[in-house]
Structures are given as structure tokens and as C-alpha cells.
Amino acid sequence: MIDKLVQHINARIENKLTESDISLLSDVFHLKKLRKHQYLIQSGDVCKIAAFVVKGALKKYSIDTTGKENILELYIENWWAGDKESFMIGTPTPYYIDAYEDTELLVITKENFTNKLSKLHFISELNSVLTERNSFQLIKRLHSSQTLIAEQKLEELQNTYPEFFLRFPQHIIASYLGMTKETFSRIRNSSLKK
Question: Model's pTM, two decimal places?
Fold first, then answer.
């Protein structure tokens, strides 16, 4: 199981992990299984773990005053799930993360991260790469939500993350794109006719 995490890290850092690094990762990361619809975190919790998705799919969302879910992020294999701000600073999260499918995660506690990993060079390098990638994606997503019409948003998502369309139903993807499921369905049907 740790092999997938090792591959993920090695693909993103310059100097590959040593046997000692891998042994340390095996000691501090533990398997956590979630059943479909089981929560990883809930609004109001402090996020005390960082989770690497080995198998499965999750969604991160907030719930507005009408009770509607607003999907912020989708996670599949080889992605990190959690609330980084809550994890790093200790503030309560405003989000929910739950498993859309039965899911297997490798999780590390905040305590183990701080005491055993945070000062290691490969963690600093990995964190820098992931933070940079996430900030680019966030800016791209913000730009898309503010400047593209619904058809363009859908096309961009299909080009960037085609696997989402195989893993999540239309209403979840519609919410992720900030549109109603009716608009999503209309656009999808229209593009299929072309």
C-alpha cells in the first residue's frame, strides 16, 4: 500500500526516497478505510490528518443556508484530501469531506507530521511542488468560474480531468462547476448531438 505513496512522492521530487525515508513513511502513515458516504471530516472539526487517496473517490463541500451542497473539490487516486488550513493552523474547518465510493486512504496525523516529517528535505520539496500546483489550479478554476460560459467550463473540465466524468454523477460535477444539474444536462446533451 505504501508503494503508491512512494511512487507519488518520487515522481514529484528531485532525489528519490531512500530506504530509510520509505521505512519512516511506513511508520507514520496508516491505512484508513471509509465506506461510501462516510465522513473523513465534518464542518466544525479541526482537521487532524492529511490523507493520500490510494483507492476510491471523495468530495469536499460546504452546505449553504438552503441545505444545498456546494462541491469545492473532488479527489480520486493519487490525490491528497483534507483541509490544509485547518490541518496546519488548527482552525475548525467549514467543510465536509466524505467518501463517494468505498475508499482507502493512507493518513498521517498532525502530530506525526510535525514531529517526524515536517523538517525532512523531501517533505519540504513535495510540499512546495504540491502547493505550487494547487495554487495554479486554484487560479485557473477561479478564472474559469468568472470568465467562461457554462459550455466552456464543461469543456475545460473534460479536457483537464476526464476521469471525473467516469467516477462522479452529473449532479456532483454540475455543483463542482457551479451550475444546476439541469444546465449541465442541457449542455451535455447539446454537445453530444454535435
Answer: 0.91
